Amino acid sequence: MEHGQEHITVVDENGNEQLFEVLFTFESADFGKSYVLYFPVGAEEDEEGEIEIHASSFTENPESEDTTVGGGELRPVETDEEWDMIEEMLNTFLDEEEENEEL
User: Fold this and answer.
1) Which residues contact 73 (CB under 8 A, 6 or more apart)?
2) What pTM value is reported for the model?
3) Region Disordered: what ranges (predicted)?
């Protein structure tokens, strides 16, 4: 699992670009895919102190010299099983972050 201060630009169906911060990336041997969790740069927490987090699978572009997620293509998560696995990974990540903050 990797995380850091990386950014990606996502183009929506209307051609609008939005900048997102990458929360973390990971690979799943079970699904044979790489995944990225990300949120809008400058996102405000809601009343419950939460930020909407997006998840996608991604493929790296071998033509690109950029080895980050930004050098590849985002794809939608396809199955409920994938969503369950992503949710489990996110909960583990957030638990580890909370433990690190307590130290």
Assistant:
1) 58, 59, 61
2) 0.80
3) 55-79
